[in-house]
Structures are given as C-alpha cells and as structure tokens.
Design brief:
Two copies of one chain form a homodimer. Chain A is an alpha+beta fold and about 600 residues long. Chain A is about 55% helix and about 10% strand. Chain A has 19 helices and ten strands. In chain A, the strands form two sheets. In chain A, strands 3, 4, 5, 6, 7, 8, 9 and 10 form an eight-stranded mixed beta sheet that branches. A two-stranded antiparallel ribbon of chain A has the order 1-2. Chains A, B: GO terms for molecular function: flavin adenine dinucleotide binding; oxidoreductase activity, acting on the CH-CH group of donors.
Amino acid sequence: MTTPPVRARDLGFLLHDWLDLEALLAYPHFQDHSVETVDAMLDIAGRVAADTFLTHYKAADSQEPHLVEGQVRILPAIHQALAAFAEVGMFAAPFDAEVGGLQLPQLAYSAAMAQFMAANVATSAYPMLTTGNAKLLVRYASEALVKACALPEIEGRYFGTMCLSEPQAGSSLADIATRAVPDGDDGLGARYRLFGNKMWISGGDQDASENIIHLVLAKVPGPDGKLIPGTQGISLFVVPKVLVEGSEYAGQRNDVVVAGLNHKMGYRGTANCLLNFGEGAHYRPGGLAGAVGYRVGGMGQGLPIMFQMMNSARISVGLGAAMLGYRGYRLAVDYARDRRQGRPIGGRGGPPIAIIDHPDVRRLLLAQKAYAEGALALVLYCARLVDEELHGPAEGRDEAAGLLSLLTPIAKTWPSEWGLAANDLAIQVHGGYGYTRDFDVEQLYRDNRLNPIHEGTTGVQGLDLMGRKTLKDDGASLATLRHRVTATVERARHLPALADFAHVLDVTWARIGALVGHLKAAGDDVASLAQATSFLSAFGHAVVAWQWLDQAVVAGSLAATDDPDETAFRAGKLAACRFFFETEVPRVDVWLGIVGRRSDLTQTFDPAGF
Amino acid sequence: MTTPPVRARDLGFLLHDWLDLEALLAYPHFQDHSVETVDAMLDIAGRVAADTFLTHYKAADSQEPHLVEGQVRILPAIHQALAAFAEVGMFAAPFDAEVGGLQLPQLAYSAAMAQFMAANVATSAYPMLTTGNAKLLVRYASEALVKACALPEIEGRYFGTMCLSEPQAGSSLADIATRAVPDGDDGLGARYRLFGNKMWISGGDQDASENIIHLVLAKVPGPDGKLIPGTQGISLFVVPKVLVEGSEYAGQRNDVVVAGLNHKMGYRGTANCLLNFGEGAHYRPGGLAGAVGYRVGGMGQGLPIMFQMMNSARISVGLGAAMLGYRGYRLAVDYARDRRQGRPIGGRGGPPIAIIDHPDVRRLLLAQKAYAEGALALVLYCARLVDEELHGPAEGRDEAAGLLSLLTPIAKTWPSEWGLAANDLAIQVHGGYGYTRDFDVEQLYRDNRLNPIHEGTTGVQGLDLMGRKTLKDDGASLATLRHRVTATVERARHLPALADFAHVLDVTWARIGALVGHLKAAGDDVASLAQATSFLSAFGHAVVAWQWLDQAVVAGSLAATDDPDETAFRAGKLAACRFFFETEVPRVDVWLGIVGRRSDLTQTFDPAGF
C-alpha cells in the first residue's frame, strides 16, 4: 500500500479539529463540496504525491535540468508526475467553476499541495507557479487572454512563470531595465515588444508543457525614450513562449531564449533560468526582433498587480518550507525508532537502546515537530484567511484581508527559517548517515536553504512586517491578531496543563504591543527598521506560540477516546506546545530586547572595519 | 600576487597581540624559533594554501573520490597540493626535532593550518589525520613502529587514519565488534589478526601517499573466545595498508579492503570509506586471512590512548569549522562591497548603493565576523594551552591541561555550530547567487555541516562538558576559567566602551557558577544531563563572550597608530565585541534558564506521540 507523505491525522487535525473546514464549506461559494469530497481529494493527492512525486525526488536532484539546443530538458519523471497531477484535477482545484475549476477552498487546496510539496518540493514548483500565474490572469486580464493563456494553465497544458528579477535587480525591482515598446494591437489587446534579461526564472523553460506563459515586469519608455525611475514605471506583460490564439503571430515562437541555467545547491528539479527577451537572434515573430507581449492591467500598475501573485507565492514558499521540515521530521522519527545505539544514562549494560529513547534525541525530534507542524499550521491558517477574505461573510472580509496581510511575511519567513532548522536537526538525528546522499535528509536541507532567499529574503520580509505592516499601519490588524490571541489565552487559562503558557503568551503579546507603541512614539523609523529582522523573529515566534497553544487547547478539548493512537497523537500536540513554551518562547524576549534597544551599531559602523 | 586565504593581520593580532606568541617562544623547547621564523612559516603556508589548496576547492567537490578496481582514486590536484604541503615541511612542523620535526609551537602550527583549512578543508583532512596518527605513535608505540610508520608520516610519505566507528557503533564505541586475534610476534612486536568492519574512515583509502597507517580500535577475545563488553576490552592496533619494514610480511598488501565509499553532502575531497578488515578474499598476508596489526599500548588501553588523538582531532574539527566560517565571511564582505542594490531606507532616488551599506547586511556581516573570528580565537587559545601543558613552566602545566580538557568540547562544538551559522549568513548576503554553485559559499555551508557530527556529535560533546567535565569534576578547571574571566573583566572595567560588557560578563559567569553549584547540590545527574546541549550552548557563548571582550581590551590597548587600515581593524574588533554582547550574550540566559528548570519533558514523553 502507498504511504502518503503526510499523515492523514496530521492534516485532519488541522483542517477539521483546529480550522473547522466544515464551517468554511458552509459558505455558498463552496456549496458543491463537503467534508467527504475534500477528504477524498486529500486522499487522492496523497496517493499521487507518493506514487509520482516522491518516487523521483532523488533522481531529480542528481539529474539536473540541462540545455539541448537552447531548450531546457527536465527529467521525464517530472513530466509524468505533472501529468498525473493534472489528471486528478489538481491544476483546476483552486479555480472557480466558471473557468473550469473545482472551486475548492484554499484551505483544502493547500492541504492537498502540502502533500505534493512534502513529496517533492521542486516538482511542485511548476504547478505552484502555474496556478499563481493563471489566478492573476483570471483576475486582471482580458477575456481573450484568459481564454488563450489561463484556461490551458487551469487544464495543466500550459505552465506559467513570474519574471521579476534581473541580474542587477533582485530585491530592488525599482531598478529593472527591461523595456516594453508599444507595437500596436491585435486580438489579444495592446501589444508590446519586450527587450531585456530576466534572472532566477523558475520554470523559465522546460519541456513538460505545451507552452509557457511568462508574466513579465517591464517599463514602457516615456516620450523621451527614457524609462521612468522607481517602481511607478513598471507595467505587467503576458509573454507566451509560443504565441497563442488571438495574436497576429499565433503559433510563432516568441523571441524569448534561455541564456543559461542556474546550477543550484538544491531545489534542482525546478529549472531556473536566465531568460533573454528580444535578442532577435533566434526567433523573430512577424519578422521582427522583440518578445511579443500583451499588457495586463493599467500602465504603471505592474507591481501592485504582480504582488497579488507574489503574496500568494510567499505563502506557498512557506508551505513548501514547512513540508520540507515536516518530511525530515518524519524521516528522523522513523530512523530514531529503528536505530539502536548506546545505553540509558546512568543505566548499566544491556543491549543498545533505540536512539529515540535518548532524551537529547527526543529534544531534536520535539524541536522538529514544533517547527514543522507549527509552520504547517501557520500556513494553513493563512489559507483559511484567503477563503474568509474572498468568500466569507461580508462583515469579516476586511478583517481577514488585514490579518492575512500582516501574517504574510511571517507565513513566508517562519517556515523558511525554522523548517530549515528542522532539516538541520533531522540530519543530526541521522548522524553520519544523514550527511550522505543515501538518505533524503541532506537533500531536504539543501532544498530548504532556498526558501529564506526567494520571493523576498528574510531581510525584505522583516522590513515589510515592521515598516509597511506595523510602523506605517493604523494598527487595526495587529489589534485583530491580539484579539484572537486573547481568545486563545482565555480558553487555555482554564486548562491546568496550559494555564502557565497562557499567562506567558499574554505577557509576550503585551510586550510586543508596548514595544510597537514605543517605536511609533519614538519616531525615527530608520533606527527602528535597522532592527527589523529581530522584530520579525520575535513576532514570528510569538504568532507560532499562540497557534501552538491554540492547537493544544483544541487537542485537549476533543471528545474522549479509547484509541491509543489518537491518545498518543493528542499527547504529542500537548508535548510540542510545552516544548515550544519551555524552549522557544524565551527567545522572544531576547529579540524584543534587541529591537527595543535600537542599537546604532549597524548604522554607524564603518564597513572598512570588516 | 597570491592573496592568502586568511588576512595576515587577522592571524597576527591573535598570535602576537592577543596570545603573546613571543612569550611561548621563550620556552626552552621552542628556542630555535623566533617571531620572524614563525611569521615566515605562516607566510609560506598562506602562499601554498592559496596556490595549491584553494585552487582545487571546487574541482574536488564535483569530482568525487571513486573506486577503480578496489582502489580509491582522488583528484590529482589533491596529490599535488599535499606534495607541496610536505615540501614546505608542514607535515613535520608540529613534531619534535628528534623525530625529524620542526618543533613549532602548536599555536603557530594551528595558525598555519588555519590557512590550509580556510583554503580547502577536505584536502587539509589528510594531513590533519596523518599528524594526529603520528603523534599518537610517537608517544605510545615502540621504537620499531615509530620508525616504520610514524617517521614516514612525518615526512609526508605515508598518511594515517583513525578507525573507531563501525556501522552499528558510531557514538557508542563500547559496542565495537572488530576482533583482534593474537598471531605471535615479529620485529614490530605483538602481532594480531583483525576481523571486522570500520565505517566513516576519512582517508581510509586514497592514491596520494605511498602507504596508509590505520589506527584501529578492536577487541581481543578472552579465553572463552568472547569479546569483553563495554569499553574496557578495547585495545589499539596499527594496521598498515602495506606491511612495513620489521614485519614478517613486510611489503605484502594487508587484508584491508575498501567495501564502499560514502557519498557525502560536502567535504567531498576527503575520501570516506567503509573498510573491511580480515575478509581474506583479496589479500592474505603470509597466506592467511586477517588484517595484520600490531598492538600499541596495553591490553584494554585502546580507548584512553585513542582519545589523545581524538581530543586533538576535536580541536582540529573546531579549527576547520572556524575557517569555513571565516572564508565565507570574507567572501560575503567582498560581495557586499561590490554588489550594488537598493537605496538607503528613508533616502530618495540616487543610484543603487553597495549592499554593505544596508544595516541588515552589516548585521549579517557582523554576526559572521563575531562567529568566525570568535571561533578562530577560541581554537588558537586552546592551541596555546597545548603548548603550555607540554612545554610551559612546570607549575602551570596542570592548570593548562585542566583548562584545555574543559574547553575541548567547546572548541569542537562552538565553531562547528556557529561557523555553520556564519556560512548560512554568507549565503544570505549573496542572495540567489549564493545558492548557486557558481559561488563558493554554498559549498562552504555543505562542507561545514559535517562538523557538528564527526568526532563526537554536539549531543555527545554536551554530555562530556556537563557530565565528565562539570558534574563529575572537582571544579578546579572551572575555577581556573572563572579566574581568567575575572582578569579580563577587571581590565575591561576601566575602558569606557567596554565597562558595561564587563559587568554583563561578570554576571553571566556568576550565574553559570551558581547554576553548576545548584545542579551538583540537586543530585539526579540524569535529570541535569537531559539539558546537556543547552548547557553546552550557554557555556560556549559565555566562553566566546569572554574572549571577545578580551580581544576588545587588547585591541583598545595597543599603541596609537596613524595607519587607517589598522585603525579600521581595531574598530572592527570593538564592533564585533559590541555585536556579540548586544545580540548574542542575551541568548545565554535563555539556555541557562532551560538548564535550571530541568524540565522532564524529554525524559517522560512517550515517543508514540511523535
């Protein structure tokens, strides 16, 4: 029998017991679904993930994407896996029925994706990008573009990319130099010719889909021929690899070429490309150089529109990071149960014991559990907010949107940083074996190292959280969060095993609230923002502490059971919560202390001293 | 001109200004050396490291050791590098003149090795193991064995290994099952035939040296033919790959075969083997199966003798880890100076600035500097203790030996954990580029991930520090350490920039002292030892905090200078000290809190809940 990469009870607890999926399914938008249909979908996802994604995890690492005559070839097993993914409707799952989708809640879709990501994060990147790409088009593009580009993506026939970074402009999109020159219009609307280079394009080329839909940020030159400095000049363009129906050049190969492949430490199954647009050397649609693209959204609106996709991608990065941490954790548990070595401290003689019985190994496993399951919970919580924002009762939508916005930098960063930490500990549990490529944990660790970098580094997320989402915000979403924390605290206060943690959590959030007030009153945001990463670390741990306490409250409040597995499962949730409060929450004060002191060291230090 | 992998001033400050190498050179044992000869040696080491070790860093990663007809082949560039290493006398450097050595102080030798390790840690592992091997033989083996095995190692013609672990016994040496059966004696002394498998043998086979001298732990069966359980039955044997002069079977290939190579995440240049002893299938010295070995030291004395080599290897692991962190730090500084991206927060327009001018990037660099230079300082401090123990004034030798023993688990672990953390941050400074194999930082990170595992995992070091070195110790060495800390505190109190840190350090060590007293009084070492890793973390940070303050005191007390580079250098030392106290020292209280609470979670939790 196929073992799914994520334990059904782990997902079931979060979806049903903790996040009350049933209540979501009562929204009119989800009326065609029931707990049973969702569980069936999750079951199918688990099987397909195990049978087609997990099976080529190592092969895709050792047999990297490569160029053959300018075309990227990826492992055939990836083709097959993505065909199976399409076959069971996973590309269509999160879309509305009117564009051919299954109209599944984001929460349920995320739980399904969690299994694919646990099985193979690099292969999962192709549908993740394709779905985000199509979602953007469905929301912002003309009917003709949706029909020509998004619908084939929803069917899984075309894949999508996001082309933002350039070699000289990664985090700093204001400096992009790709030009989009007006070129009349055709059946797909306002047409442009694009010229420039895009770096770090995941799925930028591959041979698994019929076509590739690039979403490209570029600047339209002003009347003086110059690009507008800053982000205001950025617009968004659809640039298909092969021009699509409705285009004057339908069927012609577009002027987009792969200039090179990046050879990464991990995440190798995802082809990552440097793309040249508008070279004119190999392909000239209509006989002219310039990549043909169609504008989506208004002039200069490229960045805000792209950020719809980016925010969703950030949460997806968090999910992938969580699942890498999760899979390493499960592998480490299995290894620790099987591997026998050493004796109990203070014991005498006898045969070696399973290493899971050494307290320090249990510490390594509890930490992984706290990080991985905490990260998964966080991301699924955000997925539920997406559903509440888009389809929930009208009066709650703004609150959900605000809270989601506040939590997005956490949902991206916390799983990335701590999922990686979990993978580090999974290697440690395996000892020397974990350092070899005979086991998966070293690859999980290499794969996960990407996550604190792409779609906005940890430093960038810190600036977002502390700047835009806190110092420059009216505080309503922080108040919402605080309100939800307090509700958890009130429930936990009455449970003897959790009352102490409830108190600690309350004090921690009071301290965060006071610090935010203090920083706002102090002014000089530059001085505050120099501590943004520590603020992000503190805030992230405090959010996860809240959710761990909430998970523990729920686990401790379920109907009595005689099932020993279920009893052990609930005890595990309580233990992870306890571990988090005993071992992790004390770090919050350290980070808050750093933020509160606002040391000027990093601002004033002369880098000649490095 | 060749740029050495370690800046001369970084080494010079630690050796001369901080650790007073000149005072060491006044010991009679080192009378043939002077500051000038040592500096000349360091200069040569830096050039050879740059010209022969650094040059194949990436090649040795992508072209792994491989088996050809049972023989391990390693990259020819490694042969050439090690020949150059031998050529300049580096194999001989730390040995006494009477065995052909240069009689260099361990401190100076370590500073030289630091450069080779910074350039290429995997290639440096061969001489590191060879030197440790020969040192053990010189101290414990017969004259005949020294002549036949150690002297060619000191010349760099033979390389050495240490064969401890077995597939079923890594950290738990009591469970080794390799048998050594008496086989008469010959010109090399008591002869045995060994039968068993040894795992994780670095340099276990290679084609760069004329011969390989294995030091093998094995058990001699008792009269009943059974092995003595536990570590008491372990003896130590010299097992040459090709039998050496004095042996009845001189010139014959010994019955040691490579059963397999481990394919590692990093550190790939070091061939890591599973060795089978005594298979009798390919080689039968004297016509009989069984690997021929000669006992070194008394029956059952194998482990204490091997731990001489192991303790030295642990400090070498710390040095390698420090230098991986150091090299990543220097690469990150160079990258951050060159790479232009973004604008100052709160600034408007203008061209992109060098990322070294972003406060968060400076934070990433200061952390790396604090970790890498702190780790290097720690290891060199321990190297000086080796010289004090072996060759210093008689009245100080016991104190040096005791302090070295106390600090060894720190010197192994702290650089391993925090050097790796530095490499993680070096990748982050490089952004996406750092995740590609076009830059060295991802390899440094992969290489360094081994260090918390081999030669005793972090968990094992924690048990050593808290158990043997603290709870079961009379406290004399901790008192020595405390005394040295207090001396630094007294000096720092009078420097306005450091007075606050002096106070914090004093309080921190008082808290550690009180905690140790409390734990000893409380009894139940099992409960305390469940927190051993947190104790190790706290202790390590407190030791490095002390040494950073001490470095800062020295940097602040040097004669005035007009040299802007020197001024910047000293400001850098003060800034790193300040960073460590502002950002790192607060963590100590978190770890001490965990230790002090002695939670029973990891002891009582039923692992069915994982």
